[in-house]
Design a protein that fits this description.
The protein contains nine helices and twelve strands. By secondary structure, it is of the alpha/beta class. The strands form three sheets. It has a five-stranded parallel beta sheet, sandwiched between helices. A five-stranded mixed beta sheet has the order 8-9-12-10-11, sandwiched between helices. A two-stranded antiparallel sheet has the order 1-2. Helix 6 links the parallel strand 8 and strand 9. The longest helix has 13 residues.
Length: 269
């Protein structure tokens, strides 16, 4: 952020806020704009899933505040996070809210922007590489492929979907990407089956994307619950449901197999 983004009200200088998308956890996927904003920050409030291992180097002059949420544990509530953002900005600080993924993709970024607007604080949003796209790609799964899928839908698995939503996903016939979906996998898989999705529909569960322990479990809609239990699947994970899972590509050694699988699909110009 630059000096133009600060303003003075009376004798109090108001700082600024930048919401920074940190991507799926790999520092190499940070944008240039993200790195610049973090380097200039006075205060950084960071999430658990943001690439924070090197944060002390990226933000050498900033106070670092961990506001990360974990399953069943929210040491700092969303309201508390917004209050901290506002408090530091009103004290004249350049505040970075450092979030995993993209601030506007299930990141509650819009709520934090509104909190800034209510308090007259200048705010900027720097998009991040969303894990909905990057993590499947890291597992070699394209979300679209000519002749197989021409669309994809990203949904939150934080809460079970309604019957209308499940029916819509089944009828759409596109790739389904689920974030935060390990806990609701039973209701999702059974719901899609109930609404007519084939039991043999491929499913991939990619755990800990871009980490040294990234792991992919490939299954089908009919067997995914048993396979996930046997593998001990845990969050964080990205789920992909769709025929594109058959094209999962893990390196040059798999090239012949990939071409053979792709040939099973009819592709026309």
């Amino acid at each position: 952020m630059t000096a133009q983004n600060s303003r003075t009200t009376g004798s109090v200088s108001t700082g600024s806020v930048t919401l920074v998308g940190g991507g799926p956890g790999a520092a190499g996927l940070l944008t240039v704009a993200a790195v610049t904003a973090i380097a200039q920050a006075d205060v950084v409030l960071f999430d658990r899933l943001a690439p924070n291992d090197e944060l002390a180097l990226l933000a050498p002059h900033a106070v670092l505040i961990d506001v990360g949420k974990r399953a069943g544990s929210h040491p700092v509530s969303q309201t508390g996070i917004e209050e901290l953002i506002v408090e530091h900005a009103l004290a004249g600080k350049r505040v970075v809210r450092f979030k995993g993924g993209d601030p506007y993709v299930f990141g509650r970024g819009s709520e934090e922007v509104l909190a800034c607007h209510r308090n007259g604080i200048p705010v900027t949003v720097i998009s991040g590489v969303t894990s909905a796209i990057a993590v499947p790609a890291a597992a070699g799964i394209p979300l679209t492929h000519r002749g197989i899928s021409h669309a994809f839908t990203v949904i939150s698995g934080h809460a079970p979907l309604t019957d209308n939503e499940l029916e819509g996903l089944t009828l759409l016939g596109s790739t389904i990407v689920v974030l935060m979906g390990v806990g609701t996998l039973p209701t999702l898989s059974q719901g899609l089956l109930r609404h007519g999705m084939p039991v043999g529909m491929p499913v991939a569960i990619i755990e800990r994307g871009f980490s040294a322990t990234q792991r992919t479990t490939v299954s089908t809609l009919g067997t995914v619950l048993a396979d996930a239990a046997a593998a001990g699947v845990r969050s964080p994970a990205v789920l992909v449901v769709g025929e594109v899972v058959r094209l999962a590509f893990s390196g040059d050694a798999a090239a012949n197999d990939l071409v053979a699988r792709a040939a099973e699909f009819s592709v026309t110009d």
